Amino acid sequence: MRDPGDLYELTADADGVPEGLPLVAGLTGFADAGAAVSQFTEYLLGTLDQKVVANFDADLLLDYRARRPIIYFDQDHLTDYQPPALRLYLAHDELGQPFLLLAGFEPDFRWEQFTAAVLQLVHRFKVASTTWVHAIPMPVPHTRPIGVTVSGNRSDLIESMSVWRPHTQVPANALHLVEFRLQESGASTVGYVLLIPHYLADTEFPSAALSALESTSASTGLIFPTDRLREQNREFVARIDEQVGDNPELAKLVGTLEQRYDTYMEGNALRSPLTDEDGELPTADEIAAELEKFLAIRRNKDDAPGN
């Protein structure tokens, strides 16, 4: 394997990073239901004091043709180019507590070398623990708290927070491999899978970002400002509730999910809040299609003359 150090370059601020900090990570790429990870990292970078301590080489890690960067065209000339970035930051939470944040694109290439590079940085800065988040769509209701599946070697968090513990094979995220290698080495690591309502998977669901922040706080003790996100979430949920209330079929489907979720959380024999009485997955596509049809109707009404 190539030298892991070839994938990143430390900045001058790296020398000032204290030892023993927690590492928090969220990478965007394969799946990001409810825009959980993108909102989570953008919120942290936009609200907290931070500085870059390491830059990863996008030319070595990213497939530009699969995830094309944005360039701006102003009438007759190009004005700006936004290259994708994957960086390690030194940030401070609302109380001034320092932590490391790995944020940006998920690598397309060199996963083993990238994982070795992250472990090299973990060793260099004597990282105390690693926490990472990602999100997947599930047929669960938006009217209930977002559940999480917890992985890693933090048994306290697994026992207290993990609502769904499947035996299954899943398409991997690059951070799955990082977690796997950290666990092999005996380093403290925890991964949170946020279970996002299927019918909101393609939206920017503020509750998803809130769940990511709260889960991260549980494993790190970091405190994050959430007032703005909570207000956005109240407005978002109010709009969804109005739309569901105006559509009897969708209301029935959401009600069925609520009943199944509540039964599962009460310790019913159901193996998962995602299955029906026969152990089959509910018709998540039907839920999504119904909501999409209803939203299209609403948009057409709003766009009609006189509205």
TrEMBL record:
Coiled-coil blocks: none
Highest rank taxon of the organism: Bacteria
InterPro entries per record? Proteasome_assmbl_chaperone_2, PSMG2_sf, Rv2714-like
Under Pfam families, the record lists: PAC2
Q: What is this protein called?
A: PAC2 family protein
Q: Which organism is it from?
A: Cryobacterium tagatosivorans
